[in-house]
Design goal:
Strand order of the largest sheet: 1-2
Radius of gyration: 17 Å
Largest sheet: 2 strands, antiparallel
Distance between the termini: 32 Å
Number of helices: 4
Strand content: 15-25%
Order of helices and strands: HEEHHEEHEE
Protein name: Reverse transcriptase domain-containing protein
Shape: elongated
């Protein structure tokens, strides 16, 4: 997930690479605070729609959608409303995720 930074804040996100200055237009996530920032953004964003909130969960920057409760496209539209983009959805049925085998109706 890439979070755009307000133009007024870009000057505070200046970095030098090979002695050349750059201003970041996206929020940079550090190893320590990145997961918590993403989780907070996700919770605020998803909390705007109670139906989507009850049908989703997240792990870092992955969103897990219960498609029996809400359509994936509804979640994508909500993300777009916040100017966020996501990868194409991947079905998880009978797949391994985070070292776990997911099986439907067991």
């Amino acid at each position: 997930m890439q979070v755009r930074v307000d133009e007024a804040c870009e000057k505070h996100l200046a970095v030098k690479v090979n002695k050349r200055p750059y201003q970041l237009t996206r929020m940079g996530f550090g190893l320590n605070c990145g997961p918590e920032i993403i989780k907070a953004i996700f919770n605020v964003m998803i909390g705007q729609d109670k139906k989507i909130e009850s049908a989703t969960d997240s792990y870092f920057d992955d969103i897990i959608v219960d498609t029996e409760k809400v359509n994936v496209e509804e979640v994508r539209r909500l993300l777009k409303k916040f100017d966020l983009e996501c990868k194409e959805p991947v079905p998880l049925e009978n797949e391994r995720v985070l070292g776990l085998q997911l099986t439907k109706n067991c």
